Amino acid sequence: MWRTFLCLGIMLSNALIASETGGLRLVSDLNPGAEGSSLSGFFVWNGRAWFKAATRQGDKTVWALHASDGSTTGTRRIKDFPPQEHGSIFDNPFVYENRLYFQGPNAALGKGSRIWVTDGTEAGTRPISEDGKDVCDEFKPFLIGERLVLSLHGDYNGHGLVALNLHTGVTETLAVPFDGWEDYTDGAMLKGAMLKLDLDGRVFWSIDGTRKGLKKLVLPGMPVFENDDGMNQFIAMPNGVLMLPNGQRKPPLDLWHTDGKSVVKLASWWPDNPFSELWFGRLGDLGLVLAYDRTRRCGLWSSDGTVEGSRNILDSDPYHDASFSFQPGRQSQPLIAGNKLFFEMDDGKHGLELWVSDGTKSGTHLVIDIALGNEDAGIFKLFPMADGRVLFQRKNANSGTDVWVSDGTEDGCRRLAALERATDVVAALQGMILLVSDHDQFGQELHALDIPQPIVPAAKSK
Predict the structure, then answer these.
(1) Are strands 193-197 and 253-258 parallel, antiparallel or unpaired?
(2) Of 86, 89, 87, whose CA–CA distance to 78 is shortest?
(3) Which span out of 15-19, 106-110, 405-409 was modeled with the highest average pLDDT?
(4) Of all helices (H) and strands (E), which one includes residue 14?
(5) Between 221 and 375, whose confidence is greater?
(6) Which DSSP state fits 9?
(7) Among 35, 130, 139, 299, which one has the highest count of C-beta atoms within 10 angstroms of its own C-beta?
(8) Beta 390-395 vs 240-245: how paired, if at all?
């Protein structure tokens, strides 16, 4: 009987939500009542969104793994995680051989993190390691064959390095701890091995996932850094690895490349502040850098890993009269969707608006001037869709959120919904998007918005 009343309550809740927020419907009230569920860590796999959520059980907060296909009946609690003081719950997820792996809690110590695997069932959601030697720091999922390279932490003076076999669950120690090694697992793949720079800024290591395959490399052309500075941003390319330095004290800021035999400088720019934020990513076979440059105000550079193929493809303000230039703290994070880079920029004429680039000068342009004139569009988040389009959110005049979609052209830029509440897009599924939204009745919970077909164009703001 109680299940019947629960279903009727959820149906009534959905109707109330849809009538109040322009098509936004409640998926599930995971933490019944007005208190929200603290949903986060969304990852799409096998047509469902996987995420962690917190609920109150008496005086305790319990975190659990959930999965949702965007429907009430298709949203379920997979497994409760053991309580611990600090550490990961559901972080850095990745898929290997149709199973989902992630960084989860370490129940044995009550702190720290281990590698978990799930097949979508409660029984099949567990730590993978049989020997418990996979307690790890934050890591990037560096897979070399069936081996996952991990940087251990715990009671080490420094850090140890292990490889966790995803087939057997057994770990192999690759290196004993070293003082000064802060994180082994920051690097990029180069010719089937992981390339990692030691924190002294002078020595690279090649890691193939075995103890014998751990090799120190000496690469001619490596710049000399002060203190413990070195290369800290890496992008794997077909012909090697692109690199940017950390803590370079004096301009210019340089882009470097290595093929595993030597290191070459490709390009330079001149920020007013050597610690200026920038964006660094890969689009196809090109590396892109979006950064502030005092001679260009804001610049977009592309590189194919060669000196000849590294160039500036966009000056945001060639006349130096823009009121504002690229500042990641104020703008949304640039995003790769499909074969395009979407980002915000002020060109001195249109205000801060959405731009797109395919990595060429001719293919880099303003998408649409949403807020006409030199007013900013107010975009605060970009989100990728599986079909190569991008979703973006902007605040509206009603203190709510407008959700837009764009394919990189003005005609293909449409408003999906004008919502009365502040929302956060968290996942894109087939025919719908999932959002976390606040509501007076339910608190912060999971909602869905169906994508209408065809999408009706929306008028520009005045």
Answers:
(1) unpaired
(2) 89
(3) 405-409
(4) helix 2-20
(5) 221
(6) H
(7) 299
(8) unpaired
Residue 313: its H or E element? strand 310-315
Among residues 255, 362, 345, the alpha carbon closest in space to that of 304 is found at 255
At residue 183, the pLDDT reads: 52
Q: Which residues pair with 353 in a beta bridge?
A: 345
Q: State yes or no: pLDDT of 102 exceeds 70.
A: yes
- Residue 5 DSSP SS3: helix
Q: Measuring CA to CA, how many Å separate 413 from each of 66, 336, 390?
A: 33, 17, 9
Sheet containing 48-57: order of strands: 40-45, 48-57, 60-68, 75-80
Rounded alpha-carbon distances, angstroms, from residue 238 to 93, 242, 336, 361, 457 = 25, 10, 18, 22, 40
Q: Which of 171-175, 256-260, 310-314 has the lowest mean pLDDT?
A: 171-175
Q: What is the mean pLDDT of residues 15-40?
A: 69
Calculate mean pLDDT across residues 260-276: 81
Whether 18 has a pLDDT exceeding 60, the answer reads no
What is residue 288's three-state secondary structure? strand
Neighbours of 453 (CB within 10 A): 6
What value, to the nearest 5°, has the Cα angle with vertex 324 and ends 323 and 329?
Answer: 155
- Give the model's confidence band at 228: pLDDT under 50 very low, under 70 low, under 90 confident, else very high: low
DSSP string, 358-391: -SSSTTEEEEE-SB-TT----EEEEEE-TTS-EE
On whether the CB atoms of residues 366 and 353 are closer than 8 A, the answer is yes
Q: Would you mind telling me the total number of residues written for the chain in this entry?
A: 462
Distance CA 32, CA 35 (A): 7
Contact 384, 392 (CB under 8 A): no
- Rounded to 5°, the CA angle 112-113-114 comes to 140
And the tokens for 238?
């077909």
Q: What pLDDT shows up at residue 245?
A: 83
Would you state the pLDDT for residue 195? 82
Strand partners, 172: 163
Measuring CA to CA, which residue among 448, 459, 352 is closest to residue 24?
448
- Distance from chain centroid for Cα 284: 18
Residue 230 C-alpha from the chain's centroid? 23
Please name which of 105, 169, 167, 94 lies closest in space to residue 136, comparing C-alpha atoms: 105
Q: Beta partners for 84? A: none
Q: What is the pLDDT of residue 109?
A: 67
pLDDT-derived band of residue 246, with 50, 70 and 90 as boundaries?
Answer: confident
Its sign, for the CA torsion 461, 414, 426, 453, is positive
- Number of other CB atoms surrounding residue 285 within 10 Å: 12
SS3 424: strand
pTM strictly above 0.70: yes
Degrees to nearest 5, angle at CA 223 with 294 and 144: 105
